[in-house]
Specification:
Blueprint lengths: L9 H8 L4 H12 L8 H33 L2 E3 L2 E3 L2 H12 L18 H14 L1 H9 L3 H7 L2 H12 L5 E4 L15 E5 L2 E12 L5 E7 L10 E7 L1 E2 L2 E2 L2 E5 L10 E14 L5 H37 L1 E2 L2 E2 L4 H37 L2 H37 L10 H8 L9 H18 L1 H17 L3 H29 L8 H11 L11 H25 L6 H27 L2 H13 L1
Parallel strand pairs: 3-6
Antiparallel strand pairs: 1-2, 4-5, 5-11, 6-7, 7-11, 8-9, 10-11, 12-13
Length: 602
């Protein structure tokens, strides 16, 4: 086994050193949040980042990973309203604290190390490869940068030192019994009394809701509805030495046994406003975007662990006179993991870079560039969450299959990996919610930039046929498949909204039509039944396109190893994209009829 999850993985070190914006980001990050005297140049910063990741990689391989099975076996306990976590997990958190993990994303002004989000995501991925329970705890307790962005100066001075020392731990409380994905149905209330708020209500499925400080989303305007009138509250676990809220229950889950998933009851609990009153959804949306990136990265780390264990086992397990890795179907499963994990990592790295640039320009007050990078971060995060979560389930399942009968035995890690993967398409927004975000972003882009889409629609396939650059050709072919998917969705809207005979529209007529009516495509009266039906298949196509493009964008001609992985991923992705397009046109429409019959029968 690897002795260091960073330096022993050239796919990670290469992503950092050659296939990311990290070196470009180093000095702008220091200029915005750090101290320009810390580094003389970007090379010095890269040496520090490399050293930090190497130390974390060593910790993960040698100390965190060996404790993972015991953490899963021991689980959490609730007694008299107090939650206890497994000692090996507590030990892991102390070791992470000693390496400065909880201070990583905090600016130097508040005692942090000002590490770019790219570095933080690679670190989180390694923790997840070693132990998903530990990784989730680290992600949940690393909320200092969120507080730094939205808290008052007094709040920052009070809480950030406690957070980065891990003396105080954090949670995010959004979900309620009737308000999971639909946050507009939140009932928990906050009423202002002096400089504080009195909070009442119940939260459910809150990871680490038992900890010292929770950031709770509550309704502060009793006359509001939907996403209006919500505010974010800082709610301490104790006030004046007395409990400020109750933990009556923790969930008995199939996965993440080391992570308490809590019910929280607020009864005249005391909270303190963070950010503008009534703008809580906007504030929390930023946190959720970062959380989605984090959960996607944890899924990526778990998928990597499953690949490694499956590959190791397949090399030693002999059947029919040879190791099973030499049997075609087994080899194919493992090789697909090898290829797709690199694509997933490229996508996650690009999203992390977008987050870094967004925060830099926000700090500088450059509104134009801030909006540009915020849009890109919002565009990429649901893709990272969707792709990594769904692939994680597939890869852990395939790893279990490779282990055969041993896969379901607890003597081996395959069954644990499979269980741990199941939550990823659900929490921090289900895969279907991510798909609706992708659909909305895609249609919005087309509606506001019809000219660019139409140019791409007309030219991507033709250009892919004449270019001599094999990578460019594959990216253009993928763009063509994405264009066809968008076209299918658009035609369904046009047919319903404008009662247009789609079959009678020639290609040029479609382009003229969109130029005239693109801004009218989306309105409260637009029937989106078919687009919603297509959303998940569209999202798979978008994920494949962006993952391929992220790999290609950081390719340097002559890098044969990178060229190989890009072309191999394209060979996997392009047939898959075509299949999804065929399904969208030929298979899905019949489901609309099924929905109508169910509505009548129901």
């Amino acid at each position: 086994m690897a002795e260091n999850y960073y330096i022993d993985y050239t796919e990670r070190t290469g992503q950092i050193s050659k296939y990311s914006d990290l070196e470009k980001l180093a000095m702008p990050i220091e200029d915005a949040f750090g101290d320009t005297s810390t580094f003389q140049n970007a090379k010095e910063a890269m040496e520090l980042y490399d050293g930090v990741l190497s130390e974390i990689g060593k910790l993960c391989a040698n100390e965190v990973q060996p404790a993972a099975a015991e953490i899963d076996k021991t689980g959490v306990r609730l007694s008299d309203g107090e939650v206890s976590m497994p000692k090996p997990l507590e030990d892991n958190l102390l070791k992470a604290r000693d390496l400065g993990v909880f201070a990583g994303g905090v600016s130097r002004k508040y005692g942090g190390y000002n590490l770019p989000k790219i570095v933080q995501t690679v670190a989180l991925e390694m923790f997840a490869q070693a132990c998903p329970n530990t990784a989730l705890a680290i992600a949940a307790f690393s909320m200092s940068d969120f507080l730094e962005d939205y808290g008052t100066e007094e709040q920052k001075q009070t809480y950030i030192p406690k957070f980065i020392s891990n003396e105080w731990r954090t949670s995010m409380a959004l979900t309620e019994a009737n308000a999971g994905s639909d946050l507009g149905q939140l009932r928990a209330s906050g009423k202002k009394e002096g400089d504080r708020y009195v909070i009442n209500g119940t939260k459910q499925f809150i990871s680490y809701g038992n900890e010292h400080v929770t950031f709770a989303l509550v309704r502060t305007d009793p006359h509001s509805s939907g996403l209006n009138g919500l505010s974010v509250m800082i709610v301490p676990r104790d006030i004046g030495g007395k409990p400020n809220f109750k933990i009556p229950k923790i969930e008995d889950k199939v996965c993440l046994h080391g992570s308490p998933t809590c019910e929280m009851i607020f009864e005249n609990s005391i909270g303190f406003l963070m950010g503008p009153e009534g703008m809580g959804f906007k504030v929390m949306a930023e946190l959720m975007n970062r959380a989605r990136l984090g959960m996607g990265v944890i899924a990526l780390g778990l998928a990597t662990a499953a690949r490694d264990e499956a590959k190791k086992y397949a090399k030693t397990r002999v059947t029919m006179g040879k190791p099973i890795i030499q049997h075609p179907m087994v080899a194919d499963m493992i090789y697909e993991m090898e290829i797709e994990i690199r694509a997933m990592r490229a996508l996650a790295t690009e999203a992390a870079a977008a987050c870094d640039w967004m925060r830099i320009y926000q700090k500088k007050g450059d509104e134009k560039n801030f909006r540009k990078w915020k849009k890109r971060f919002r565009r990429l995060t649901p893709l990272v969450k969707y792709m990594c979560a769904e692939k994680c389930v597939l890869f852990t399942r395939n790893a279990l299959q490779i282990f055969g009968g041993y896969g379901v035995c607890k003597d081996y890690p395959a069954e644990r990996f499979m269980r741990e993967s199941l939550i990823h398409p659900i929490y921090e927004g289900t895969s279907q919610i991510q798909s609706l975000m992708v659909l909305k972003d895609t249609l919005k882009d087309v509606a506001t930039q019809a000219g660019g889409f139409l140019g791409s629609l007309a030219g991507a396939w033709a250009e892919s046929m004449i270019t001599r650059d094999p990578i460019k050709s594959k990216v253009l072919q993928a763009r063509n498949e994405l264009n066809q998917a968008i076209r299918t969705v658009l035609m369904s809207i046009i047919k319903d909204k404008f009662k247009t005979d789609i079959e009678a529209l020639k290609q040029q007529s479609i382009q003229d039509f969109l130029k005239d009516f693109s801004l009218q495509l989306l309105s409260p009266k637009t029937d989106l039944s078919y687009p919603f039906l297509c959303a998940e298949r569209l999202t798979r196509i978008v994920c494949d396109y962006y993952a391929l493009k992220c790999m290609a964008d950081h390719y340097t001609p002559g890098d044969k190893d990178r060229e190989k992985w890009i072309l191999e991923f394209a060979e996997l992705a392009l047939p898959r994209m075509r299949m999804e397009n065929i399904y969208m046109v030929n298979r899905l429409p019949s489901t609309l009829g099924y929905i109508k019959t169910q509505a009548v029968e129901g």
